[in-house]
Every structure is written in C-alpha cells, then in structure tokens.
Amino acid sequence: ETGVTQTPRHLVMGMTNKKSLKCEQHLGHNAMYWYKQSAKKPLELMFVYNFKEQTENNSVPSRFSPECPNSSHLFLHLHTLQPEDSALYLCASSQDPGGTGNNQPQHFGDGTRLSIL
Amino acid sequence: QQQVKQSPQSLIVQKGGISIINCAYENTAFDYFPWYQQFPGKGPALLIAIRPDVSEKKEGRFTISFNKSAKQFSLHIMDSQPGDSATYFCAASPGNQFYFGTGTSLTVIP
Question: Cα(A84)–Cα(A116) distance, rounded to whole angstroms?
C-alpha cells in the first residue's frame, strides 16, 4: 500500500467542467506538494503546503485552485481547463526539516492522468 | 531556467552492463540530491540519495557519484537487469523544494 494515495487515477473532462483531484498521505508528513508531469519535461512544481499553509505558488494559472484542510489531505480544484493542461498530476509529501538542513525525500502518489477534451 | 540538467534522454543497455546517468546543477545552495525511479503508471519512487559531504554512496547495485567542485552527480546501475527498465529522475534541493531533471528512459535488453 502506497503511503500517498491519489484519486481518481484517470479523469477526462471538458473545458467547462469543474472537478477535483484528491491526495491523502498516511506517512505523518507535514508538507504536501502538487506537481505536473508532461512528457519530455521536468516535473513542474505547482503548489507547496507546509503545516497546511501554502508556501509556494509557482505562477500557476488561477484555473487550478489548491486546498489543504489538514496535513494529511490535499485537493486540486480544476475549472475551465485548457487542452495543454492534459498531463499527469502528482501529489507528494515530505517531512519539512524546518530549517535544520536535514532535507527529507519526497514520497509520491501514482498520480491522476488528466485529459482535457 | 532549468535548475538541473540530466543526460542522456534515453539509454539502452545490455543485461549485465553498467547504466550511467548524469546530472549537473548550478545552484550551490543545493544540499540534497535524490534519484527517483518511475515505472509506467506509477509515481516516482525514491531510489537513493546523497548529501554533498560524501563523494559516493552505494546501495546494492545502485551508486551515486558526487563531484561537488564540478557540480555534477551521476547514477550508476551495476549488473543492469530488464527489471531496471524505467525512467530515472535526478533532483536537487536546497530545502523543502525540489528541482527535477527531465528524466532518462532506461531500457535493459536481455
């Protein structure tokens, strides 16, 4: 059983739909992340939450809206997406070292494959 | 600007051979360098990681070589097996944010 669970695994939606991606981590971590993975590109960091507070937003369009109600759950709300938003969306979690310098690895879910019609 | 540059993009190795994937970075604030392995339909999984206070780390058939002065690090897979066929990503981190390479698709042929 993976420590990071993402649902749904696949999602097909039209450009005018509203949907949400869900991520849950069972590792006791305090930081969670959303990444976009497209072919032949590096993983693109979208959002970072530390202790439920958003600390990074890498110029992501407003049609993507994150929500982190607690340190174990993370959502990505989608609205009016474009065809170029079709990609694999990965959630990850880690234990924020809190400035100790003792970086910890990120643990990934298996992603949601999103297709925009 | 790409923070971590990875090469090659794809690699084909005979079973039993050595697979070598290289990464380079510029930001001297990076102090943690993990490698991830990703199979189709799965998320990236941590394979091995190194911190800059050592030049090499070995775990089983996987070795990271780290050259701090050159700002380069590489993954060596000894005795490569068909089950190692996957996409490999290097990454670098100055804290809780990670920067990833573009990935290397490794195929190990029997």
Answer: 8
* pLDDT on residue A98: 62
C-alpha to C-alpha distance for B66 and B80, rounded to whole angstroms: 21
Tokens of B38: 């990703």
Nearest by CB: B43 against A31, A56, A109: A109
List CB contacts (< 8 A) between B101 and chain A: 42
- Give the count of beta carbons closer than 10 Å to the beta carbon of residue B98: 27
Tell me: the pLDDT tens digits for A27-37? 999 899 999 99
**Chain B residues near residue A43 by CB distance under 8 angstroms:** 44, 89, 98, 100
CA B100 to CA A44: how far, in whole Å?
Answer: 8
Report helix, strand and coil shares of chain B as percent, to nearest 5. Answer: 5, 55, 40
Give the chain A residue whose CA is nearest to the CA of B49: A105
- Report the percentage of chain B scoring pLDDT > 70: 98
List all residues of chain A from 15 to 44 with a beta carbon under 8 Å from chain B.
31, 40-43
Continuous segment of H or E residues that includes residue A79: strand A73-79
A90 contact B CB<8A:
yes
Q: What is residue B93's DSSP assignment?
A: B
